[in-house]
TrEMBL record:
GO biological process: negative regulation of DNA-templated transcription; negative regulation of purine nucleobase metabolic process
Chain ranges of the Bacterial purine repressor N-terminal domain: 2-71
SUPFAM superfamilies named in the record: PRTase-like, Winged helix' DNA-binding domain
Species this chain originates from: Collibacillus ludicampi
One MF annotation (Gene Ontology) recorded for this entry: DNA binding
Protein name: Pur operon repressor
Alphabetized NCBIfam families for the sequence: purR_Bsub
Transmembrane as UniProt keyword: no
Lineage: Bacteria, Bacillati, Bacillota, Bacilli, Bacillales
Subunit description: Homodimer.
Name of the gene: purR_2
Keyword Protein biosynthesis part of the UniProt annotation: no
Source domain of life: Bacteria
């Protein structure tokens, strides 16, 4: 196998298995190559990844050594992405009653979800999260993308309990619209005493995320991070506190003048 072909195959394998330790022995057998040659190939790939801001390669020495691709997102890439999102979201045609914005189409685009997942994974990779938790429905793609880059399971909290999920824990909470709602989570979906990362698409006062945090107490789980695609600048004090990361911030919505202002979120402050 030519070296160029080998490098392409190794790169593809790393990108397909982020945050997973891959055995160098297995890789060498599959590519019919010596470990010394693989080490030289990985050095080239590592240099390119770091130059482009795609992430890092972590190698483990020894007979049972391996390599792990740790996805990252450079500040330049993140700033460009947030700038593009702010421009798209500032379209006055997206204004919904109550000061909300229509985002379903954006959160259905693979390239948006992929980048958002990388950014969340980069921001929370040192938290030790073991599960990504979201509530149905629009937060599901974001949570799945994040879980892919962190290589941990994604769990969905339901608005209504489903018989097919077995016994569940349910709680009532007050939503941002001041309505009493219910959320439930199957007991089989999350073992007790785990570290959980909360991901959602939108946060105003933080009522839903506060309820998710309360639900985690029933599982004796530790919430190690909160990430949202968009938060609002008001109210400034969220029910989940101010220790959260947002990619964008909805600064103001003037329904009368049909004006929307979207600015970078707290991601760049973390």
């Amino acid at each position: 196998m030519r070296r160029s072909e080998r490098i392409v195959r190794i790169t593809q394998t790393l990108l397909e298995h982020p945050n997973r330790v891959l055995s160098l022995t297995d890789m060498a057998d599959r590519l019919s190559s010596a470990k010394s040659s693989l080490s030289e190939d990985l050095a080239i790939i590592r240099e390119v990844f770091e130059q482009e801001g795609w992430g890092q390669l972590e190698t483990q020495a020894g007979a049972a050594g391996g390599v792990r691709y740790i996805p990252d997102c450079s500040r330049v890439q993140a700033e460009q992405f947030v700038k593009e999102m702010a421009t798209v979201l500032a379209d006055p045609e997206r204004i919904l009653p109550g000061g909300y914005l229509y985002m379903s189409d954006i959160l259905g685009k693979p390239e948006v979800l992929d980048m958002a997942g990388r950014m969340f994974a980069s921001a929370f990779r040192k938290t030790g999260a073991e599960y990504v938790l979201t509530v149905e429905t629009k937060g599901i793609p974001l949570a799945v993308s994040t879980s892919r880059y962190l290589q941990i399971p994604a769990i969905v909290v339901r608005r209504d309990h489903r018989v097919t999920e077995g016994s569940a824990v349910s709680i009532n909470y007050v939503s941002g619209s001041r309505r009493i709602q219910t959320m439930s989570l199957s007991r089989r979906s999350l073992p007790e005493r785990k570290k959980v990362l909360l991901i959602d698409d939108f946060m105003k006062a933080g009522g839903t995320l506060k309820a998710m945090t309360d639900l985690m107490r029933e599982f004796h789980a530790e919430v190690v991070g909160v990430g949202v695609f968009m938060s609002t600048s008001e109210p400034t004090d969220k029910l989940v506190g101010n220790d959260y990361i947002s990619l964008t911030t909805l600064d103001s919505v003037n329904e009368t003048e049909r004006e929307v202002k979207v600015i970078p979120g707290t991601y760049f402050e973390s």
